[in-house]
Please model this.
Amino acid sequence: MHTENLAQYRCPLCQQALLLTEKSYRCINKHSFDQAKQGYVNLLPVQFKHSKEPGDNKAMVQARRAFLDKGYYQPLLDSMLALYQKYGDKTAAVFDAGCGEGFYTHQHKTEHNSVYGVDIAKETIKIAAKRYQDCFYSVATLADLPFNDGHFGWLYSVYAPILENEFTRILQDKGYLLTVTPADNHLFELKALIYRQANKHDTAKQVIKQLTLIEEQRLNYPMNFSNSDDVLNLLAMTPFAFKASKELINKLKQQKEFSCQADFVLRLYQK
Model:
């Protein structure tokens, strides 16, 4: 059974509570947002959009889904879940900021918590809601989230923009924010095929000022590929994919084996 009828949202237009009645979320001021057949709700009013279809395009979405399904980032997810088990209030609501297709979202779900995922890309939310029906999914902007103050006990952001003021607003007192960002050598071997001089990621920048850093981890491991489709899907997920030449893509298609590093920094903050 889909749990969407238990979701707690606030109206993105007037900040009043939204109640689900007959497949529409409505507030006291009669703003209305229809629940899609997949179970998600679009809480991104047209005037908040900066483009017709904001967020990742369909090809990028499909590539990321295929790549993540192969388990290459499972060690990252395991590290995230270990931190949640160590520090998190297991009955408090969990929020995935920029959730994509729900790969991380649904694996935080237990019988005792409620888990929400938000993304600005409708295509990704549609996939997540259809595939993982035990979580709540909505299309919204991270800059103005459709939740009341102090709604969540655990919030995480994997590569998504970190909007400290808004994230802090929706966190409970003593709640946690986990950020995952690329470390120095993340995908360095793949980058080196594209750029003459591949720069390492700058990991020194810390954008969080209001919250207290509780724990920081570095996670580095090799990803060994024996299927060129997986490498091409990984490339399609990256911001440097558009710089890859046709020659390089053809070369990768013919390569039987390829190896590159996954390298992440996990930082856990408390309000």
Summary: Helices lie at 58-69, 74-87, 122-131, 164-170, 188-194, 228-237, 246-254. Residues 74-87 form the longest helix (14 residues).
